[in-house]
Amino acid sequence: MLFLGGLGRSGTTVLERVLGELPGTCSAGELVHLWQRGVLDDETCGCGQSFSRCAFWTAVGDRAFGGWDRTLATRMRVLQRRVDRTRHVPLLALPRLPRRRRAWLDEYVSTFTRLYQAIAEVSGRPVVIDSSKHSSLASCLRHGPQVDLRVVHVVRDSRGVAFSWTKQVRRPESVAAEDLMTRYSPARSSVLWVGHNVFFALLRRLGTPTLRLRYEDFVAEPRAHVAQVADFAGLPAGEAAAGFADESTVLLTPSHTVAGNPVRFRNGPLTLRRDDVWRQQLPRRRRTLVTLLTFPLLARYGYLRRTGHGDTR
Questions:
Q1: 153: closest CA among 78, 228, 258, 99?
Q2: 98 forms bridges with which residues in the sheet?
Q3: pLDDT tens for residues 203-254?
């Protein structure tokens, strides 16, 4: 199971779409949101059908649970609040958990395990891509004995992330035309950026196989970095060029993603290019604030150097 992690607006959905074109992979979207947005709210799948009318997800539900059950979805939402929250990550790092919390965690992870297995079986592809991003879900999944968890820790310049979180973006999968994606202030997104990146570093220290990938490096040399991720996922390196029309253009085919930014609905050619509009449009005071709040990790990831690609190990 290939888990794409990092703070939102870091390019994980684009990376997922590109990786989803590799033979042997099935991109499923942000599965942490499946229970609410898919089962309970019946939002639109990446294929354009509503979740309840999508033949793929209907088959997955039948295989995993004998059909989608609102009671199960409600139960998973309760368990999410109990174990799958960022504030629980330090507790999840402990070698032993309190008995009740361990029971909640086992129930939660075993349900996800059944889901991943069903996705692999229905799709006929052994590598399931979950772009949930949340460090807390990855921390839960590392406790699953049947989950071969491999994390791609996606990092983007905190100033670009902060700028992106201030923009208004409509959620096209929602039935409410005025429904917008969440927005954060630069200060809030800076705190979240630091927290998520620190917790993914903690996962790595705890032994979870982790590959760190900078968004800027990926869009600069997409084929080379897709090959790196393919090797990390155990896929044949020769298949890394699948879907590429040239060095920077990917031909996207329809996917069954349950959540993510609007690019998950895009099909056809997609040219990957660096998005640095924040350098012109992020006000100087906000840029300075974000730089100060995230300075140690900006330096660690190589964003304070004019050249260099940073450490992608």
A1: 228
A2: none
A3: 999 999 999 999 999 999 999 999 999 999 998 866 677 788 888 999 999 9
275: β partners:
none
Own/partner contacts of 62-71, CB < 8 Å, gap of 24 or more, are 63/118, 63/121, 63/122, 64/114, 64/115, 64/117, 64/118, 65/114, 68/38, 68/39, 69/39, 70/39, 70/40
CA distance 150 to 17: 17
Q: Is a pLDDT exceeding 70 seen at residue 179?
A: no
Measure the CA–CA gap between 149 and 128, rounded to whole angstroms: 10
Res 183: pLDDT: 84
**How many angstroms separate the CA atoms of 129 and 4, rounded?**
7
Block residue for tokens 């640095």: 276
Encode pLDDT of 38-68 as tens digits.
999 999 999 999 999 999 999 999 999 999 9
- For residue 199, how many C-alpha atoms fall within 13 Å in the half-sphere facing its CB? 26
This prediction's pTM? 0.93
Angle between helices 55-65 and 99-123 (to 10 degrees): 130
Domains, the chain, with CATH or none: 2-300 (3.40.50.300)
Tokens of 197: 């990146």
